[in-house]
Amino acid sequence: MKDIVVGLVQQSCSADRKKTVEKTMAGIREAAAKGAELVVLQELHCGPYFCQTEDTACFDLAETIPGPATDEFGSLARELGVVIVTSLFERRAPGLYHNTAVVLEKDGSIAGKYRKMHIPDDPAFYEKFYFTPGDLGFEPIATSIGKLGVLVCWDQWYPEAARLMALAGAELLIYPTAIGWDPNDVDAEKKRQLDAWITIQRSHGVGNGIPVISVNRVGFEAPPQGDGAGIQFWGNSFVAGPQGEFLAQGSNDEEEVLVVKIDGGRSENVRRIWPFLRDRRIDAYGDLLKRYRD
């Protein structure tokens, strides 16, 4: 992979789709003006994180792919000559919806999409109510700037997903994300959660010898109908290199656009001194296909 300048748009979102999208597009323009060739957006960036409650009316937020969002962001990608990683609520068919990342090429066309494979179901993160698990597998998306291993949020906790993307030739791991704290948690618990989130993703970079890009939202989002404590999204969007080294990191409470250059040759050099792929004992890993070894 050649050297590449990457932009990350970390922002808050509101129920006003027009204003939220305009703010996102302003962030993309800022990143492009600073030289970004690839701009990554956070999970479900067109509006609030609606999965805090189970409400059938929220299905009205979903869009087809292609559809309004891919048209809007595709037009901007074409205007600016950048690759954009979006994250959308996909309406595939009546009663069938996905949490889908769409990669838009520099000419505005759809380079490919990834449907979130791991779907959580936890207090304030009731995603199983809304999203059907992905069925496209762990396949990198080929673009003019390289092969992108795009995954989404909850996928970031699973080393298998990162490994399969790397084994298929992904040159970057990319995680659009929407994750935050329960405001009722004590500070020590909040720190443990944030540290774990950062550590697991950096470890995917280390274990596979490729850079990692993670983009998370910021701001407090109250629960619909006042049902629950809400979520304080913790930001901390970051880029890490193939040894887990931080190349850029955002704050936990500010909207910001991060722009950083990634050394395209570094992965090759790191894999030569840490040849993890060479030394994998693929003959001994069959039990990974089991749910649990009793």
Q: Main β-sheet: number of strands, strand sense, barrel status? A: 6 strands, mixed
End-to-end distance, in Å?
43 Å
Backbone shape:
globular
Helix content: 10-25%
- Low-confidence runs of at least 5 consecutive residues: none
In CATH terms, the superfamily is Carbon-nitrogen hydrolase
| Element order: H for helix, E for strand | EHEHEEEEEEEHEEHEEEEEEHH
SSE order and pairing:
Blueprint: E1 4-10, H1 17-33, E2 38-41, H2 68-80, E3 83-93, E4 96-104, E5 110-115, E6 121-122, E7 125-126, E8 141-143, E9 146-150, H3 159-167, E10 172-177, E11 180-181, H4 187-208, E12 212-216, E13 218-221, E14 231-234, E15 238-240, E16 246-249, E17 256-262, H5 266-273, H6 276-279
Parallel strand pairs: 1-2, 2-3, 9-10, 10-12
Antiparallel strand pairs: 1-17, 3-4, 4-5, 6-7, 8-9, 11-14, 12-15, 13-14, 15-16
Overview of the molecule:
By secondary structure, this protein is an alpha+beta fold. It has one domain: Carbon-nitrogen hydrolase (Nitrilase/N-carbamoyl-D-aminoacid amidohydrolase), CATH 3.60.110.10. The protein contains six helices and 17 strands.
Summarize the structure.
The protein is 25% helix and 29% strand.
Salient structural properties:
single chain; 294 residues; alpha+beta; Nitrilase/N-carbamoyl-D-aminoacid amidohydrolase; 6-stranded mixed β-sheet; 17 strands
